[in-house]
Amino acid sequence: MVAASGLAPPRLAVPCPRAAGRGCGGGHHRVGFLRSAPVALAGPAAAQLRCCASTVDDGVVSAAAAPKPRLPRVVGMGSKLIGCGSATPSLSVSNDDLSKIVETSDEWIAARTGIRNRRVLSGNETLRELSVQAAKKALEMAQVNADDVDLVLLCTSTPDDLFGGAAQVLAEVGCANAFGFDITAACSGFIIGLITATRFIKGGGIRNILVIGADALSQFVDWTDRGTCILFGDAAGAVLVQACSADEDGLLGFCVQSDGNGQKHLNCVSSHVESILSKTNGVPSFPPKKATFSNIEMNGKEVFRFAVRCVPQSIEKALEEAGLPASSIDWLLLHQANQRIIDAAASRLDIPSDKVISNLANYGNTSAASIPLALDEAVRAGKVKAGDVIAASGFGAGLTWGSAIVKCNCFT
């Protein structure tokens, strides 16, 4: 989640060492990780990529306990993207619509952000429904049955239920053999979810994983604050990640980082209201106050500074880990926060504008949904093709940011 303007950068993280198991970033407050080089599969595992549950050497799993065959837990197994999907609410809110609520204009918003419209949940629409629609579309493109999904990762900071939504989503999609959990990392959520999925495949004996990015930040926006209400929209996007042999691995490199010192610049913190119950027995702190959440608060200039400096650095580190030059990138796909940030990153990486994927003008900042939403549109429009290399980067609240270099060798 990033605002419209700003200038000076935060502290610079030290370069990422490429040695396996070492951190990326400098100091105790900013930590990042690069993966080690892939280990090639050998023998029957490389040829078949399958095994019976009884051969999984975990000491407790038996053939009778597992509902279906699992892959061997072999470090070095690759991952590939084989399907994508997205969904958006029906209500479209234009800049002109917002000008009737706050003092702003289409020209002012477009010049500072690149946004002209956004979609917002209304009526009986829910984020869960959008997530289910996006997931089903990804499965349809991938030609994978819901029963064959092993894991569902729901990347969201705004679930319909405070306790998480992955279990409800996978149930409605029909993933009867899967387990799932939520990943909360705001606008970095999808990239972190994608990388997490590949780690489950690499060493966890898992074959098919749905990674869903979905957020409804409109529910936490102060619609009288023109500094934030102009930015955000709601959406969901999903990809199906499938296991493959190491030499087909589509995740070529990645880097993830965080800096909690920047939380003060972008947050949506919990707040409290007085309980309807009165204080009892002279104890001043009981009963507890009722918790809720404040509106999104953002220091736009500081967040902009962070993004325009750290995002290109993150992509450069991921490219270094992949052993690729920036010239090898077919598409630059950033979190859709601000067109000026996207343009600045492309300029630093020397990537021409015709290789930049952007749908920001139509949807605004959809947080964890923005990257898979833009990817799905680009794939279905025929822009992204099999074999294309994408440099994707998410960044936002936390502060967190991360990049992945992905080869889309299975999209048609």
UniProtKB/TrEMBL annotation:
The lineage of its organism: Eukaryota, Viridiplantae, Streptophyta, Embryophyta, Tracheophyta. GO terms for biological process: fatty acid biosynthetic process. It comes from the Eukaryota. InterPro entries: ACP_syn_III_C, ACP_syn_III_N, FabH, Thiolase-like. Its EC number is 2.3.1.180. This is beta-ketoacyl-[acyl-carrier-protein] synthase III. GO terms for cellular component: chloroplast. Belongs to the thiolase-like superfamily. FabH family. It is an enzyme of class 2 (transferase). It comes from Oryza meridionalis. The keyword Cytoplasm does not apply. One of its GO terms (molecular function) is 3-oxoacyl-[acyl-carrier-protein] synthase activity. It catalyses: malonyl-[ACP] + acetyl-CoA + H(+) = 3-oxobutanoyl-[ACP] + CO2 + CoA. Residues 181-260 form the Beta-ketoacyl-[acyl-carrier-protein] synthase III N-terminal domain.
